[in-house]
Structure formats: C-alpha cells, structure tokens
Amino acid sequence: MEFSAKQIAEYLQGTVDGNPEAAVKSFAKIEEGVEGAISFLANPKYAHYLYETKSSVVLVNQDFTPEVGKTYTATLVRVPNAYEAIAKLLSLYEQFKGKRTGVHALAFVADTAKIGENCYIGPFAYVGEHAEIGDGTQLYPHAVVEERAKVGADCILYPNVSVYHDCIVGNRVILHSGCVIGADGFGFAPSPNGYEKIPQIGIVTIEDDVEIGANACVDRSTMGSTYIRRGVKLDNMVQIAHNVEVGSHTVMSAQVGVAGSAKIGEWCMFGGQVGIAGHITVADRTMSGAQAGIAGSVKKPATTIQGSPAINAKDFMRSSVVFKRLPEMYTELSDLKKQVEELKAQLAK
C-alpha cells in the first residue's frame, strides 16, 4: 500500500516540512534510504545521513533543526518522538499483513482440545488433550501446546516453541522460536547418593501483552506459579527460574538470569547478562547496567545500579576510576610502606 506524507502526519499528529504528497510504500534505515521509503531520525549521531538519504519521507523530532547550508531532498514529518512514531507505523504495517488461518493436515490436534476462531495451526504443530487455543492465535510449525495448557487470543507461537502442560498464556503474547514455557524448575535435594529430584508440580502464568525472545526459558514453580506479569518483554536467552515473579512492564536484555523465588518489581530495566540472586526483592523501576550481579534486595524504587556485587551506579563509576589506578596505587603504597619501615629503623637506633 502507498501513503502520502500528509496522511502519515495526520495519523501521527505531526506536521509536514516539504511535499505533502510525497508517497511511500516501504521502510528503510536512513543510511540505506531509497525512493518511496520512509525512514526516521531519532539519534543525533545519524543526522548527517539526512543530507545523503534517498528516502522520500523522514520522521524527525519536532525540535530537529537541519544544519545551516546543508540541503536534503526528503520531506520531513515532525512528530513529538520519532522513535515512538516509527514503532507506531510498523505496528500499523503489521496489521495490514494477512494472517494465516486453518489447521494444516500435518498438524496434530487432540479431540478434546478447544481451538478458537481464525486460528492457524501449522504443519507438525501439536495441541494436546484438553488444551485451549484462543481466537486468532497462530501456532507455527513444530510449536507444542501440551495437555491442559491454555493459550489466549491473538498470540503468536513461532516454530519450536514449547508450552508445557497446565501452563497459562494470556492474550496477545508473542513467543519466539525455541522459547520454553514450563520446564521443570532446578530443584534437587542433596543425598548420600547424589541429588534427589524435587517434583515441580506448579505452573507458569504469562499475562497479556508479553513478548519472550528466542531460546528463553521460564521454569514452572515447585508449587503455585511462576508469574510473568502484563507487558513484560524478555530478550533472547533469558532464564527465569521457578517461583519467580516478574512485575508488569519490566524489560530484560539478552542472557539475564533470575534465580528462584526472586520478586522483580514493575517497570524495571535490566541490561544484558545481569544476574539476580534467588529469594530477593527488587523494587519498582530499578535500572541495572549490563553484567551487574544483584546479590541482595533492592529496597528503594527507581534506583540505578551497576557492578558485581551491584552498587549505586554513581558509586560504581567512581570506584571504576580507582580500580584503573590500583596497580599504580599498589606501587605507591609499597614504596610508602618501605619508607615507613626505614624511618622506624632509624628511630630505633
């Protein structure tokens, strides 16, 4: 489909600088722009591409000011937030794409399973006994929904997703390839003969509007439920252990690991490879830098932490400066210690 700059501006409640009839039918990064494409400029580091891009329309922030003396050919659509605006357009574009429907002849659906309207069950997908699939949900090839599990409406389960027995998935949830929901929690009791497995008889509950990346794992609880609350976004290869609760709208980057029974607050942000100890509580709106090790509870909301063990981010930055000078400081300390010993020896005479 094709849209004009004027139509895009009206949809985004923005304004047009340039040709309001400039037409676009595709998306492109600003540095790879082509005629008929729309791009966006949100980061000032990419501003120089505006004067080179061949994109027909570029979304910019309302306060963007072009460099004096430089020219560009694109029509600008000014919006309050260019990054949010492009996300909104991409979501609209997704809605125009047709959804697959129907149950493929090579899929297996148990007789007791309940399948909603306008669903897609791809080849070699599996829906177990008494499982429930909501309206408009899509199961791609080799996706598995085991016995008594419930998947809500308008979900997408990409290839090789596994939802174990009895687990609950809400509405508008996206599970990417290889994601596993409801594997056993890591529960073992030491014994003279090794480790005795503790049965994990609980479930996983994933609320609405959650997205979980490829090869991420959310373990079922020992008893009760592991909870992923509404609007949570988990990146690829994130590990959520048994009995954890992740608060609504929290986001975690790749390879974050959360140990058992930790309680994570709402609207938190965790960088890549953050490790969170078990049985602790992390307050709402905590922000953690990459590779932080959170060993104890974070009690104050809206705290920014870094390092391992994690401390206040400003303290960590100051400590990092000192850390870089440790070899030099050690040499100085050794020299001072030597001088002190020499003074003691002289005084003793």
Notable characteristics:
349 residues; alpha/beta; Udp-n-acetylmuramoylalanyl-d-glutamate--2,6- Diaminopimelate Ligase, Chain: A, domain 1; UDP N-Acetylglucosamine Acyltransferase, domain 1; twelve-stranded mixed beta sheet; ten-stranded parallel beta sheet; 40 strands; 29% strand; flat
Summarize the structure.
With 349 residues, the chain is an alpha/beta fold.
Report on the architecture of this protein:
By secondary structure, the chain is an alpha/beta fold. It folds into three domains: 3-96, MurE/MurF, N-terminal domain (Udp-n-acetylmuramoylalanyl-d-glutamate--2,6- Diaminopimelate Ligase, Chain: A, domain 1, 3-Layer(aba) Sandwich); 102-315, 3 Solenoid (UDP N-Acetylglucosamine Acyltransferase, domain 1), CATH 2.160.10; 322-348. It is built from four helices and 40 strands. Strands 8-11-14-17-20-25-28-31-34-37-39-40 form a twelve-stranded mixed beta sheet, covered by helices on one side. The mean pLDDT is 95.
